[in-house]
């Protein structure tokens, strides 16, 4: 194991496999030179991944089983180069991540967290709480209309929003009234709320930059349930602090668990600690799929959800 997993999942693994908690080894490099030859699998998550250095230090490595749908911190070139199979946990978390996106959209546009602070601070008697913005009738622009993106679209439609999206290609299997925008700036211009639901990694790093935020504009809201790396965080802080963006709802950050102090000081942002899929039900489903992949590989050489 590269980093901690849920204790219950670790217990399940321990019933069938010999587990090494590598990150706790007093000297990780020495651990690899002493035990690396016998390691056949890496258990990791979308948070800790697996580096090229680690993959190459394990000559008997067959499989990398990852908890979470995003696998951007796994060096896929190194894994492919060694014919190491990589699995993730797609499908089972789409609902919860989409719910989180809607929770952030509503929280920012209706100022839920800010007004909660207003009540707790006892301001209600002296001051007016002011107005929020309605979601219905406005446009939800989704960057990355994959499985999670489509669940976000369904929910946003239920709130009366119009849907626009950007993917590399238009999708043929989505309702025809979802408007396709050929580029990111066009999507931002079209959107009142822009939601990020695309994979992280080198190819999407900082694609939401100052120009995209400028196009989203002073009435626009950015919601990120994807990866912090997708957004140029310094540009986001700048846009929010100069009123060029109305607000942001963030579940992910560039350097987790570090959150820019400037964001923490802003009332028009809502900040979550990367909990998009964190419900009892979804964590159970992710754990089951993780185990099905691990056992599927070691029992039958057939993992359930290998990364393509
Ligand atoms: C997990 C996630 O919390 O699935 C993902 O890609 O980001 C989250 O569901 C994470 O992978 C576990 O660390």
TrEMBL record:
Q: Ranges for the D-isomer specific 2-hydroxyacid dehydrogenase catalytic domain?
A: 31-307
What parts of the sequence cross the membrane?
none
Q: Does the keyword Ubl conjugation apply?
A: no
Which SUPFAM superfamilies has this protein been placed in? Formate/glycerate dehydrogenase catalytic domain-like, NAD(P)-binding Rossmann-fold domains
Which terms in the Gene Ontology molecular function aspect does this entry carry?
Answer: glyoxylate reductase (NADPH) activity; hydroxypyruvate reductase [NAD(P)H] activity; NAD binding
- Which InterPro entries does the entry link to? D-isomer_2-hydroxyacid_DH, D-isomer_2_OHA_DH_cat_dom, D-isomer_DH_NAD-bd, NAD(P)-bd_dom_sf
Superkingdom in the source lineage: Bacteria
Protein's recorded name: Hydroxyacid dehydrogenase
């Amino acid at each position: 194991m590269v980093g901690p997993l849920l204790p219950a999942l670790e217990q399940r693994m321990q019933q069938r496999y010999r587990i090494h908690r590598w990150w706790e080894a007093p000297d990780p490099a020495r651990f690899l030179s002493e035990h690396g030859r016998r390691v056949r699998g890496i258990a990791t998550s979308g948070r800790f991944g697996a580096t090229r250095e680690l993959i190459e230090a394990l000559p008997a490595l067959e499989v990398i089983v990852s908890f979470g749908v995003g696998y951007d911190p796994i060096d896929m070139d190194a894994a492919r180069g060694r014919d190491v199979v990589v699995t993730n946990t797609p499908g089972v978390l789409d609902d919860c991540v989409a719910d989180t996106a809607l929770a952030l959209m509503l929280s920012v546009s209706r100022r839920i967290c800010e007004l909660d602070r207003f009540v707790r601070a006892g301001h209600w008697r002296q001051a007016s709480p002011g107005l929020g913005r309605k979601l219905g009738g406005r446009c939800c622009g989704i960057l990355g209309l994959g499985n999670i993106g489509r669940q976000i679209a369904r929910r946003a439609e239920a709130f009366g929003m119009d849907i626009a999206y950007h993917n590399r290609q238009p999708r043929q299997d989505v309702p025809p009234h979802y408007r396709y925008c050929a580029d990111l700036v066009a999507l931002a211009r079209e959107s009142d709320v822009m939601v990020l639901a695309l994979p992280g990694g080198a190819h999407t790093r900082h694609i939401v930059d100052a120009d995209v935020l400028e196009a989203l504009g002073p009435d626009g809201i950015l919601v990120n349930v994807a990866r912090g790396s997708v957004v140029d965080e310094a540009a986001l802080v700048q846009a929010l602090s100069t009123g060029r963006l109305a607000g942001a709802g963030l579940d992910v950050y560039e350097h987790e668990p570090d959150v820019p102090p400037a964001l923490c000081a802003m009332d028009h942002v809502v900040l979550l600690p990367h909990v998009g899929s964190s419900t009892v039900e979804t964590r159970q489903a992710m754990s089951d799929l993780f185990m099905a992949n691990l056992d599927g590989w070691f029992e039958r050489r057939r993992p359930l959800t290998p990364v393509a």
